[in-house]
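Table S2 (continued). Query chain:
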Amino acid sequence: MRRARLATLETIEAAVWDELAGCIADKSHPWRTPVLATVDGHGAHARADARTVVLRELDAARRELRLYGDARAAKVDQLRAAPHGTLVMWSPALGWQLRCRVILSIQTEGPEVAARWARLARTPAAQDYLSPLPPGARLDTIPAEPLAREHFAVVTARVTMIDWLELHADGHRRASFSAGRAHWLQP
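Corresponding output:
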């Protein structure tokens, strides 16, 4: 069910962060699995790369979203080389699209990673990070070394700008939110 149309930029931004918090708790929320677009390569060899990810945590006060990944995945090297990306989300129920410009950082060690791994290790999802092969490897590949440890990584996406688009029968609306500033935009 659609929520009532929000009138002010402040209420829209608050509602966006409320929905983001809701998608962390609700596995069926469409924003839980956004598309993350990044760049692979540099200069003339650069190409867009996109994949669906799962939002796992939110720190609204710090404007951060967290994802989990395999430390051996190609996207980890991409993010280290070019840490800027865009998360794209769509909610048919709300009629809202979000494009969140983010700066990405990766952690593979430390107490925060260990604490998250300790929780995840007891779930079926742990198998994703215990495979002897990295993501995308051919299945007929023989691992170079036996599995020595989990390959779990925490990816933090610090939101620098949100582009909000509402598609509505009474008229489409668009706004941007960044660094404490909000502006209406032409849809």
